[in-house]
Design a protein that fits this description.
By secondary structure, this protein is an all-alpha fold. It folds into 2 domains: 54 residues, Homeodomain-like (Arc Repressor Mutant, subunit A); 140 residues, Tetracycline Repressor, domain 2. It contains 9 helices and no strands. InterPro entries: Homeodomain-like_sf, HTH_TetR, Tet_transcr_reg_TetR-rel_C_sf.
């Protein structure tokens, strides 16, 4: 786990390191970026980096943890903003399309990381799998509440639609990809007895 300053506060230098690494990892990839570049752009020394992170792997894990927490927050807010399970699922889908249509969208941080760390035993790959399992469980639970059966198959379908939209969203017209994804989710919900 990453280190923090006394009293549990995250230092300004650690925040700069993590924000810099997040920006560069997301836009350029993880393997293509070295520690020297991150420390130079964050305006910290290597010693400062190693005071907060044991190495690049720990920095990558912190980057993915931050992305995971942001997505969990978006999903929780989407669910809380909607009165019924079908509308909650639609709201979750809209958070995905909001991301796809945002400036600088470069695909899913987790899928991108998995492509660079393909060994299933690697801690970074394991972090990707843990995030994806949480997301699958979350949408499967929402789909079960809509009455769609079998919910586990519908959950896998939703995640595959999302993965396709995230991959295509940075290759083609993001608005068209978003509309296609939302239409796919709506098609799933039309099969739900609660949404009739």
């Amino acid at each position: 786990m990453s280190r923090s300053t006394a009293g549990g506060n995250i230092s300004e230098a650690r925040a700069r390191l993590l924000n810099t690494a997040t920006r560069i990892f997301y836009t350029e990839g993880i393997h293509s970026v070295g520690i020297d570049r991150i420390t130079a752009e964050a305006q910290v020394t290597r010693a400062t980096l190693y005071r907060h992170f044991a190495g690049k792997e720990e920095l990558v894990l912190a980057y993915l943890e931050q992305a995971d927490q942001a997505i969990r927050g978006q999903v929780a807010a989407a669910v809380a903003s909607s009165p019924s399970p079908p509308d909650q699922l639609r709201a979750v889908a809209r958070t995905i399309t909001d991301g796809i249509q945002s400036p600088g969208f470069r695909g899913c941080a987790f899928l991108n990381a998995a492509a660079e760390y393909f060994d299933p035993a690697h801690p970074i790959h394991q972090a990707v799998l843990a995030h994806r399992q949480w997301f699958l469980n979350t949408v499967t639970d929402l789909l079960a509440q809509t009455g769609l059966a079998p919910a586990d198959a519908a959950g896998r379908h939703f995640v595959m639609l999302r993965d396709g939209a995230m991959a295509a969203g940075c290759l083609f017209d993001p608005k068209l990809i978003s509309e296609t994804f939302l239409n796919g989710v709506e098609g799933m919900l039309q099969a739900s007895p609660e949404d009739e």
